[in-house]
């Protein structure tokens, strides 16, 4: 499936790389990869002159911290995404180095909002792993949800006075667990929900009541998986007429592929081959080859990666160069970074030993149609948590715009569809976290469409 294009990373020294997020750092309409550096600089890679080139401002490089997780979202409604860097200098419980929440300033600097005097009392000093963003009320402003490990979960939002507040306790989200992976999409309701995969205890499924408050319902829905140790989690197009499925990897345990039943509970469809235990880190769902079917990519640490096609048989595929059997994979993210309509896969390596980054691209068949849909909030920022459905050849495909997924990671804020040879969409529906929706008829193919929030 994949070929190795890592030489296109202009400067690629070994390092202890962890989480990866995709955002538009400089507001020029093009995305960059942001890579968490553990005991080394955070990195930002921009596509320029046919290569991925380093572009990290000194503020964001933050060389003195031990970063593991990263996510972006517009917390203040200014139309640009802020960047949350989750630092973890201990395995579990209290930690020494606080997280960073970087906000772009008019003079080009990036300010850490946690460093402001009125925010110091809410700094996150708990070990954690993943972080994700959520527009829980559908207003276009995001909060940052942190999966703590051995301490209560956190949800940071800006209050009316502009200071940060942890709203996890009043919202009933401040449960303590071995937090690992987080996904934020409307998978349990019509509004943005939160799904946390944990180790040494059950997963958490927070269903949005529609007003920005939540009910925990993992056991009720059959998603608790209490005997396993979760790592990466992703949503995928289940092939069931526009419904999202859930896939997560369990550390050296049985991996899960879940779809929703008519009564609202969830059923595991993982085949023995897919479920077979591995040292899994990140899980990614995407149509890498634009054939009209999602693939599920399992990024393992110290052993071969795995790839499956979403179908009734969950066919195992040859990942090609992305097998990466000797890679210490910790995180991974996808983005069409070069703008040719085929997704790139960036694998972040490290943890057990310093390694360079890996960059891979699918050998997609020539002529496979594609469409990329990029919804925006009312403020003009990426509308993470929106859901896009595309009708093509009598089938409805579905993608969620990523607020956080994988493990430690966050994918590009775009719904990427492949349609197979000569295929194209006849109808596209975009639905925002507040329920607002637009329909696009005959949107064409082999293009990216930016969809503003509907006015009036």
Overall pLDDT level: 96
| C-alpha geometry | globular
Structural class: mainly beta
Helix content: under 10%
Count of alpha and pi helical runs:
3
Q: Over the alpha carbons, how many angstroms does the gyration radius reach?
A: 20 Å
Largest sheet: 8 strands, antiparallel
* Portion in beta strands: 35-45%
| Overall number of strands | 35
Q: Between the first and last Cα atoms, what is the distance in angstroms? A: 45 Å
Quaternary: single chain
Low-confidence stretches: none
Structural notes for this entry:
The chain has helices spanning 58-61, 218-221, 272-275; strands spanning 2-4, 17-23, 32-37, 43-48, 51-54, 67-73, 82-87, 100-104, 110-112, 128-134, 143-152, 154-158, 164-166, 176-185, 193-199, 204-208, 214-216, 230-237, 244-250, 256-260, 266-268, 280-286, 295-300, 306-309, 316-317, 329-335, 344-349, 358-362, 368-375, 387-392, 395-400, 415-421, 425-431, 437-444, 447-451. By secondary structure, the chain is an all-beta fold. The strands form eight sheets. Strands 10, 11, 12, 13, 14, 15, 16 and 17 form an eight-stranded antiparallel sheet that branches. The longest helix has 4 residues, at 58-61. The mean pLDDT is 96.
List the helices and strands and how they pair.
Layout: E1 2-4, E2 17-23, E3 32-37, E4 43-48, E5 51-54, H1 58-61, E6 67-73, E7 82-87, E8 100-104, E9 110-112, E10 128-134, E11 143-152, E12 154-158, E13 164-166, E14 176-185, E15 193-199, E16 204-208, E17 214-216, H2 218-221, E18 230-237, E19 244-250, E20 256-260, E21 266-268, H3 272-275, E22 280-286, E23 295-300, E24 306-309, E25 316-317, E26 329-335, E27 344-349, E28 358-362, E29 368-375, E30 387-392, E31 395-400, E32 415-421, E33 425-431, E34 437-444, E35 447-451
Parallel strand pairs: 29-35
Antiparallel strand pairs: 1-28, 2-3, 3-4, 4-5, 6-7, 7-8, 8-9, 10-11, 11-12, 11-14, 12-13, 14-15, 15-16, 16-17, 18-19, 19-20, 20-21, 22-23, 23-24, 24-25, 26-27, 27-28, 29-32, 30-31, 30-33, 33-34
